Amino acid sequence: MYNFPKSFLWGGATAANQLEGAWDVDGKQPSTNDALPGGKDRLKIIDSDTFDWQIDNSRYRYPNHRGIDYYHHFKEDIQLFAQMGFKCYRFSIAWSRIYPNGDDIRPNEQGLKFYDAVIDECLKYNIQPVITISHYELPLNLAVKYGGWKNRQLITFYERFAETVLKRYGDRVQYWMTFNEINSAFHFPALGQGMIPSTGSKDYTNVFQAWHNQFVASALAVKVGHEIDPNLKIGCMTLYITSYAVDDDPINQLANLKQKQDFNFFCTDVQVRGHYPASTQRIYHDYNVDQSKLIQTDADFKLLAKYPVDYIGFSYYNSSVVDVTHVHQEKAQGNLNGGVRNTHLAESEWGWQIDPVGLRIALNELYGRYEKPLFVVENGLGAIDKPDEHFMIADDYRIDFLRQHIEAMAAAIDDGVYLMGYTPWGCIDLVSASTGEMSKRYGFIYVDLDDNGEGTLKRYKKKSFDWYQEVIKTNGENLDWPNQNKS
Q: In the UniProt entry, which residues are flagged as the active site (predicted)?
């Protein structure tokens, strides 16, 4: 196995909207995520024609309002990250903490001070912050008043927000990402683009317009960041799902190629290469995009060309199988982008197909296409953890999952891939983005809180805590602590 470079950034990842809580504290106004109901039907509710962004406590529970109260526990949590030996910590900044309504002229100083404190606490333990500027949320006002990212006015508002945080924290934070899982809007525009059916999310003309506006906003963030300090590293962030054709039928092989071009590469092509890919016209045709309605200027294209991102951050959880000839009828239950079940793979409790080899493939595909540094900024296993009477959690299943994926990363490095670091998702238990549940846990640290919001909020180390501590300590050389059996 290839040795991980000494500079490799081991750490963990979270998002503001899923753990901070304090949703209406110190000047913060609601974000789009604060309006998302909790429960397994969350995504169905927000994808319905009747959903209107209204917060209705009489009908729904909103677990993001409390999160795990990281807002008041961040020092304790970061100290636990330091015990594990984190070299970096990926987190996001809640836009509505800094600009409560999104279109405000002046930032909220109390919000800025909170992230000053978070960053300083990280640096106290020599943990490098890796900041996502916009992670699946925007001020609710921008979704309600402006209709979300389809409105070009959001470019100005985002540029103001990005410039504010880059100037404020750029002397202490080197690594940034502009938008989280930007390509996920193919399936859920509400999360990344702030659009719902009543504001046009089911019309792909709006989705592609929103993407274009985000591409321009991302380029402006790169421009501003490099003007502040040329050494700042500002990346994109995409959701990568390795895909396979179900068989050797050329029709399925072609469909798989289109799947990669559409989902895995379209957004990244624009942000990394600085121009739209050759497949754009075909993609517009396939998704019934009315190009006459798209607002894309020459100035936009010049900006995209001049300010591509410095690296590619991506999430990897599972792979999918493409079948357009219907030779295999059993659908995969947990995959974001559908597909049929892969009979060669095990599945998580939520039906996500576990495929560590797919991560090695993803790393090779991305690096082979772009030859830019890569950063695995999300990867993990959502599972139901059952603590004993002493709150001990023997999560060997999580250790096994992560070990296999780390082995895949090491193999990809041996293949010649330039990999910067690894921040497994949900390094501390938090509210699930897809279901609003606490029971779908990813962390090395257990938080005593259930799906009904009951619990002490106390933190407890899982078995995986000590295992990951050893992984970081040995720079990925010892993956079998304590004599973990490989599956």
A: 378
